[in-house]
Specification:
single chain; about 700 residues; alpha+beta; six-stranded antiparallel β-sheet; five-stranded mixed β-sheet; about 30% helix; about 20% strand
C-alpha cells in the first residue's frame, strides 16, 4: 500500500477500481483509509497513445447523407433524471451504482459523433494501437444501448454525455416506419447489411433488399421497444407510448400462426412494404438457433404490456415462446440447450449451442409466465437454468459463449451476455420463491460479472503486454470504418466479450490447435447486457411492500428507505441507516451460520429471529442505525473450467485470488480484501425519483 500526502493509507488505482469505486477524491479524515486519485482522468486519457504501432485514425465520417425513413420528428422532452444527490464516504466494496456510472461513460463514449452516435460494436484492445470499428452488428445492438444507458442513469444519476441520448431518441423516431418497425438507412454507410446471408443473426445478403432501409427484427429492434417503454414512463405526454404501441403491434403483423397456440416471425428481417407471407424457405423451421432469437422479441413484448398495459402483446409473446420451446424445443424438455449445426466452428462443428440465445429463452419464458401464468414455460425455464449452471461454473459465474455435450473445441471464453442472463434469471427465479437463486446471483455478480467490466486501462500502456498472439492482418486499420482515437479511455466501463476464467482477455486457444489470435476483446452486446444485469441486481437487492423492507443481497446501496454500507468481504459487517419507518429483514448469504449473526441497533444488542435465511430485525424508525455482523473466513476451491484447472481463494462469496494468474489483464487482483481492514471511498450517491418494477 502506498501513503498519500496526508499520511492516510491508500490503495493503488488499478486495484481500487477493481473494488468498485470509480470517481474518487481523497479527504483528510482521521482513522479512515481513503483512496485519492485526482489525476485519474488525465492518466487514463493518455493510455491509448502509449506504445502505438499503427496509425492514428479519427472517427470515420458518413459516406454521404444518412436518409432516415421518417423525415418528421415529433416534439419530445430532453431526458431528465430527477432524484436526490448527496456525498458519502462508503466502504470500498462493490458498488453497483458506481459501476453503472462507469457503464454510462462507456456506452456513450464508444460512439461515432459523425454518424449520429452510432455505436462501435467491436473493440480490439490488443491491436496496436487499440481500435474500435464499425460493422453490421452496430445496428443490431444500438437499441440495446438505448435501453441500458437509461437504466444506468436511473441507478447512478449520471448526466455525462446526455447529448448522445437525445440524438439516439431522435434516431429512434426518425427510423420508425409506417409499419412500426425501426429501420436503419443503408445510405451514408456501407456496412449496414452483410454481403451474404449471416446465420448468426438471420441477416440477409444486401442484394435481397431493393430499398434503402433495413430492419433486423430481433436484437436491437426488440430492445428499442423496451427503451420506448422507459421513455414513455419518464415523459407521459411525449411520443413514446404511441411509438411503442406501433412497434409492438407492428410485430403482430409479421407473424405466421401455427396451430392454435403458436406463432413465429415470417422472416428475420424486413424492408418497407415487404410482403408478409410464409416463405418457401422457412428459416424458423430450418434453424433452431435463428428461431431462438425470437425470445428477445417475446421478452420485450411482455415488458411493453407490463409497462403500458396491452395484454394482446403478452399473448403474442406466449405464442412465440410456445413455438420456440414446445415446437422447436430450443430448450429441450430436460432443460438441455439444443445444439445447432450453424453454431461454432472447427472440429466438432454442428454440436454446439449458443449460450446467450438459450438463456434469453429462459428469461422470455419467465416473463411470459409472469403475465400469463403459463406454468409449462416456467418449468422449462427452471430446468434450463439448472442445465446452464452445469455447462458453466456456478461458483464464479463463468458461462461460455457456446457449450456442448459433445467434443470440446479449445478453451471457449466467457461471453458477458451469458453471465448477465444467468444473473437476471437467478434474480427472477429467486423472487418467485427459489431462494437458493439469491446465492447464485450473489456469487456471479461479485465475481465474473464484476470482473468482466473494464475498470482499468493502464495495463495497455505499462509495457508488460505480450503481443505475439495479437497480430493484425494487412489493411486491418481501415480509415472508413476504424478509429484509434482515445479508445482505451472511451471504453472504460465496457464489458468483456470473450473473457477467460482468470483474465479479462480471452483464453488464447479458442478454436483448438493453438491457432486463435487475441485481438478483439469487446463485443458490445455484452456491455449492454452486463449493464442490464447491474440494473436487475441493484433493483432486486431490495424488496419493499407496505412498510416491510427485505434486503436480499448485501451490496452498497442508497435508497429512499435505507442506506446500506456493506463491508463484505473485508469483514462480515453491513450497516443500515434507516431513512423511513420500516420493518426490516436481512437475508444472510449461504456461507453464514445464522446462529453466529449478531445485530446491534444504536449500539445495543438486539436478538434476531429468522424466517428461512432472513434475519428479522423488526420495526425500525427514521434515524436509527442497524449493524448486522457475522464471522467471515477464507476457503479454497479447485475448479476445472473449459479444460483448465484453477484454484480460487474466496472470502465469503468474493474470489480474492486465483492461481494461475492471468497473463494480459489478470482477474481477481483483490489482495486488499484479505487484510480485514476496510478502505473507503468518497462517492456521490443518487436516489432516483423513478421506479421501473415492470422491467
Amino acid at each position: 500500500m502506498g501513503q498519500s500526502s496526508d499520511g492516510l493509507r491508500k490503495m493503488p488505482r488499478r486495484q481500487f477500481l477493481q473494488a468498485g469505486a470509480l470517481s474518487l477524491v481523497g479527504a483528510g479524515m482521521s482513522q479512515v483509509d481513503v483512496f485519492a486519485d485526482a489525476e485519474l482522468k488525465h492518466e487514463d486519457a493518455t493510455a491509448s497513445d502509449a506504445g502505438s504501432a499503427g496509425p492514428f485514425l479519427p472517427d470515420p465520417k458518413a459516406m454521404g447523407k444518412i436518409e432516415y425513413i421518417n423525415p418528421n420528428l415529433p416534439a419530445f422532452l430532453a431526458p431528465d433524471y430527477p432524484g436526490e444527490f448527496y456525498d458519502a464516504v462508503v466502504p470500498a466494496t462493490l458498488d453497483l451504482s458506481e459501476r453503472a456510472r462507469l457503464a454510462v461513460h462507456a456506452m456513450t463514449s464508444m460512439t461515432n459523433p459523425n454518424l449520429d452516435y452510432e455505436i462501435y460494436f467491436p473493440v480490439a484492445h490488443m491491436a496496436r494501437p487499440p481500435a474500435m470499428y464499425a460493422c453490421q452488428s452496430d445496428m443490431d445492438t444500438w437499441g440495446m444501448f438505448r435501453e441500458s444507458t437509461v437504466l444506468m442513469r436511473i441507478m447512478s444519476g449520471s448526466k455525462e454525455n446526455l447529448e448522445v441520448d437525445k440524438t439516439w431518441m431522435e434516431v429512434m423516431l426518425r427510423g420508425q416506419g409506417s409499419d412500426g418497425m425501426i429501420y436503419s438507412p443503408l445510405t451514408g454507410r456501407d456496412w449496414t447489411m452483410y454481403p451474404n446471408f449471416d446465420w448468426s443473426s438471420g441477416s440477409p445478403a444486401a442484394s435481397e433488399n431493393p430499398t434503402k432501409q433495413f430492419c433486423l427484427l430481433s436484437f436491437g429492434t426488440a430492445h428499442t421497444l423496451a427503451a420506448m417503454c422507459i421513455l414513455a414512463q419518464m415523459d407521459p405526454s411525449g411520443p413514446w407510448k404511441e411509438a411503442a404501441r406501433r412497434l409492438a403491434h407492428g410485430y403482430a403483423g409479421l407473424m405466421v400462426n401455427k396451430g392454435e397456440n403458436e406463432s413465429y416471425l415470417f422472416s428475420t428481417w424486413m424492408y418497407p412494404g415487404r410482403p408478409v407471407s410464409k416463405l418457401p424457405r422457412d428459416i424458423m423451421e430450418e434453424s433452431i438457433y435463428v428461431a431462438g432469437t425470437q425470445a428477445w422479441i417475446a421478452m420485450c413484448l411482455v415488458m411493453y404490456d407490463r409497462a403500458l398495459g396491452d395484454p394482446s402483446s403478452s399473448k403474442l409473446a406466449e405464442r412465440i415462446m410456445n413455438f420456440n420451446i414446445f415446437d422447436r424445443q430450443v430448450n429441450e424438455p430436460n432443460g438441455r440447450f439444443h445444439v445447432e449445426r450453424y453454431v461454432g466452428s472447427g472440429p466438432g462443428e454442428g454440436h454446439y449451442a449458443h449460450f446467450h440465445t438459450h438463456t434469453t429463452n429462459i428469461l422470455a419464458c419467465i416473463y411470459v409466465y409472469l403475465q400469463t401464468g403459463n406454468k409449462a414455460l416456467l418449468e422449462r425455464a427452471v430446468k434450463s437454468y439448472e442445465y446452464g449452471k452445469l455447462k458453466g461454473d456456478p461458483l464464479v459465474g463463468f458461462f461460455p459463449e457456446v457449450c456442448s455435450d459433445y467434443a470440446r473445441i479449445g478453451s471457449r471464453p466467457c461471453e458477458t451476455c451469458a453471465t448477465a442472463d444467468m444473473v437476471v434469471a437467478a434474480l427472477m427465479l429467486a423472487k418467485l420463491g427459489h431462494d437458493h437463486c439469491w446465492d447464485d446471483a450473489d456469487r456471479w455478480i461479485r465475481n465474473q460479472l464484476a470482473e468482466n467490466q473494464l475498470t482499468q486501462i493502464d495495463w495497455l500502456s505499462d509495457g508488460h503486454l505480450d503481443y505475439s498472439r495479437s497480430k493484425t492482418d494487412a489493411g486491418f486499420f481501415d480509415p472508413k470504418r476504424y478509429t484509434t482515437d482515445r479508445v482505451a479511455e472511451r471504453t472504460l466501463g465496457a464489458f468483456a466479450g470473450w473473457s477467460g476464467a482468470n483474465d479479462w482477455v480471452s483464453a488464447e486457444d479458442w478454436e483448438g490447435g493453438n491457432r486463435e489470435n487475441i485481438v478483439s476483446t469487446v463485443q458490445n452486446c455484452c456491455t449492454a447486457d452486463g449493464s442490464r444485469a447491474l440494473f436487475a441486481a441493484w433493483r432486486d437487492m431490495l424488496s419493499y411492500d407496505q412498510g416491510a423492507l427485505k434486503v436480499n443481497l448485501l451490496f452498497n446501496r442508497a435508497s429512499k428507505w435505507v442506506e446500506i454500507d456493506s463491508y463484505l468481504p473485508y469483514m462480515g459487517r453491513v450497516e443500515f441507516r434507516v431513512k423511513e419507518p420500516i420493518k426490516l429483514a436481512v437475508r444472510l448469504p449461504e456461507w453464514v451460520n445464522p446462529g453466529e449473526a449478531r445485530c446491534e441497533v444504536g449500539g445495543s444488542v438486539r436478538e434476531l429471529t429468522y424466517e428461512g435465511r432472513y434475519a428479522q430485525v423488526g420495526q425500525r424508525e427514521r434515524g436509527e442505525t442497524v449493524v448486522v455482523s457475522f464471522p467471515i473466513s477464507e476457503r479454497t476451491e479447485r475448479r476445472n473450467i473449459e479444460g483448465s484447472d484453477y484454484t480460487f481463494v474466496l472470502r465469503g462469496n468474493d474470489v480474492v485470488s486465483v492461481d494461475p494468474a492471468g497473463k494480459y489483464l489478470p482477474l481477481y487482483q483483490r489482495t486488499y480484501y484479505r487484510s480485514g481492514r476496510p478502505l473507503y471511498a468518497k462517492v456521490t450517491r443518487f436516489v432516483s425519483s423513478q421506479e421501473f418494477p415492470w422491467w
